[in-house]
Amino acid sequence: MLPPSASCVVLVAFFKQKVGLRKTINAAVCCQTLRRLRRAILTSGVVLIHDNARIHSAVVTQQLLEQFKCDVYDHTAYCPDLSTSDFQLLPELKNRLGGQSFQKNEEIQSNVKAHHTPLAARFFEEGIGCLIYRFDKCLKINGNYVKK
Asked: Which residue in 52, 119, 48 sits closest to 89, CA to CA?
């Protein structure tokens, strides 16, 4: 169950972070982003939902989050059906772009933007709501497998 102090839940997707082509998103970049979002994290009742990516489990990231004293909901180990980045957004994108070939990065970017731009806030709210339900279900059965 999510902490009772959580007034809202926000999924922070680091793939939105622009670091340039062929650049690695590591723990340092993760921490830099968290520092930039610190005020919003601390003042809006946000719960961070982390998967088991190395950048999230790195000591430096964990120490920074301890300093923030914010709520963090750690992803259950070895539970691919609850992967936060793959949960709703990527399957929809795969359905739209699957089977297509792109010659340039710009083509990919314009197709992704064309897919995401018309999506209403309700699409994301419903997706996060389903994710919270599945996380809660997983917690109630002590981290065992959860069917969709």
From this structure: 119
pLDDT over 70 at 48, yes or no:
yes
Q: How many CA atoms lie within 13 A of 16 on its CB side?
A: 9
Whether pTM exceeds 0.90: no
Q: Can you state the percent helix, strand and coil of the chain, rounding each to 5? A: 50, 5, 40
In angstroms, the CA 30 to CA 36 distance is 10
What does the pLDDT average to over 113-124?
Answer: 75
The domains of the chain are located at: 1-74, 78-147
Six-digit token pair at 84? 């936060």
| Res 145: pLDDT | 58
The DSSP letter of residue 72 is E
C-alpha 128 chain-centroid distance? 10
35, two tokens: 């520092």
Query: Collapsing DSSP states into helix, strand and coil, what is residue 148?
Result: coil
Return the pLDDT at 143: 60
